[in-house]
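Dear support,

I submitted the protein below through the web form. The confirmation email said the job was done, but the results page showed an empty box. After a refresh the structure appeared. I'm attaching both so you can tell me whether what I see now is the final result or a partial one.
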Amino acid sequence: MGNEQQYSAEFFTNKLSEAKTHFERALDCKHTDFDDLYPYMIEHPQFFWYKRYVAWSELLTIVKLCNELSIEWHSLFSTQQVEYIQKRVMSSKVLDYWYETNDSKESMSDKLA
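What the results page shows now:
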């Protein structure tokens, strides 16, 4: 892989890591950059659903680009998470079981180490 391709792969891997973190923070109802864009919406219950949808869309978009550029992305996710991503639909199952168990939440830095 040439230097330019290596930098592209590293760039997309970093962006994918950020998107995964963004989605997981949205799942956990934690603060994200999206909250700063719409601070007046935080009071509305449907805001959290929309926030999750936006984060999921971002994640799927970066995965799609990785696929088109033949950049490996599966290793950043559990087998179950890869299946959810490949199905592309953010169902209640994704929301409820993204973390396979409550105590299996791994940070992205743990996965990459």
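Response: this is the final, complete result; the empty box was a page-load delay. The two ends are 22 Å apart (CA to CA).
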